[in-house]
Amino acid sequence: MMKPVKFPRSLLLLPLLGMLAGCNMVVMSPFGDIAAQQRDLIVISTLLMLLIIIPVICLTLFFAWRYRAANTAATYDPEWHHSTRLEVVIWAAPLAIIIALGAITWISTHKLDPYRPLDRIDAQRPLPADVKPLTVQVVALDWKWLFIYPEQGLATVNELYAPVDVPINFEITASSVMNSFYIPALAGQVYAMPGMRTKLHAVINQAGAYNGFSANYSGAGFSHMTFTFNGTSQADFDAWVAKTKAGNTTFDRAAYLEFEKPSEREPKRQFANVEDNLFDAIVNLCVKPGQMCAKDMMHIDMMGGAGKESHENREKLRYDTRHADEGAGTNAATFPAHGNDARSPESPNQEQPHAAPAENGMQGHDMGNMGGQDTHGNPAPEGEGGIAPKQLNQAN
């Protein structure tokens, strides 16, 4: 009677490998020059490291087989302890790899700096001297993307257009929590942070529709925070701009304040007109009327402070992009939407000891102490809490 053939259980995993056929390998097959250079960096680094990893694995298996207990022909030398030639090989090869990786990292860190303007369209074409880059201002919100084209005077939601082989200058910020702007086919990810302006220079080299998304968890609607990046010809891009500008929709500060409230699965749409300097107001946290821009407060600080009167600036610097005062649920840590009890027994809107009262619901970016008050809202002593020292305020 023949014995049944036994197969290793690990073979049962082989059919699962077929599922990998549906994987999107856009990171290793990008369509933008910056992403292509980043891909090359990954490949070169991996190959250099494999120069050490593969020989080590092979020699480990060889030594285990060569010096097994059953091999009596193998040399047995228990007194052996040193070989100069072997030491040179063991240390020289990894050292050479480390030097090569260090040189590549140094060059790539500067060459692929997202703040650095482009100097080429692709590996074969340098950047023409007369080319005009396309400026796109990116705002990451809860949980959608706003794109502003300042030169074209329009804005879009969850969709982005750019002509092929034209440099793109992205200016990136966020309305509330930190996020990450990422188009794998175009370039690496760059963080979007409230009150800050980060940059990314990139170019798309092939027409098509590519996926963009947030690569940094930012709350309950994070998984739907995606957008489409459309690379088009210059003619198609101009036609899209003309079609969008033909509409009568306007995106001003009032529209933005309503739009920034947390929401999910926002549809793609365009606005024919966008208010001037809206992005600058978003970065400086002063979209709402009556608020002081962060850059203005920094200018006051640079000039030595505004003296005791600066306490009036407190309310102008209270900022909450999640509209908690209007009852807009955020699904964030302090506003649980899952029905479970919060970790803290206090209500999210409950006044905390030693904290300024939450007036007008502005709890988010509380920059009140910059206005020269203590945590109870009282004027701080001179030289403390943000008030300029006496010698800087001779008038006082």
Provide a descriptive summary of the structure in words:
This protein is α+β, with helices and mostly antiparallel strands. It has three domains: 27-66 and 87-112; 134-283, Cupredoxins -  blue copper proteins (Immunoglobulin-like, Sandwich), CATH 2.60.40.420; 290-330 and 355-391, no CATH class. Helix content is 25%, strand content 17%. The protein is built from seven helices and 13 strands. The strands form three sheets. A six-stranded mixed β-sheet has the order 8-5-1-2-3-12. A hairpin with a 2-residue loop joins β1 (134-141) and β2. α2 (33-66) packs antiparallel against α3. The termini are far apart. 25% of the residues are buried. Mean pLDDT is 80; it is low at 333-344 and 347-396.
Summarize the structure.
It holds the Pfam family COX_ARM. The protein is of the alpha+beta class.
Secondary-structure blueprint:
Elements: H1 14-17, H2 33-66, H3 84-111, E1 134-141, E2 144-149, E3 154-157, E4 159-163, E5 168-174, E6 179-183, E7 187-192, E8 198-202, E9 208-214, E10 226-232, H4 234-245, E11 250-251, H5 253-259, E12 269-271, E13 273-274, H6 278-283, H7 294-302
Parallel strand pairs: 1-5, 4-10, 11-13
Antiparallel strand pairs: 1-2, 2-3, 3-12, 5-8, 6-7, 6-9, 9-10
Share of residues in helices: 25-40%
* Overall mean pLDDT: 80
Which strand order does the major sheet show? Answer: 8-5-1-2-3-12
Which topology of the largest domain does CATH recognise?
Answer: Immunoglobulin-like
Distance between the termini: 107 Å
CATH class of the largest domain: Mainly Beta
**CATH superfamily annotation of the largest domain:** Cupredoxins -  blue copper proteins
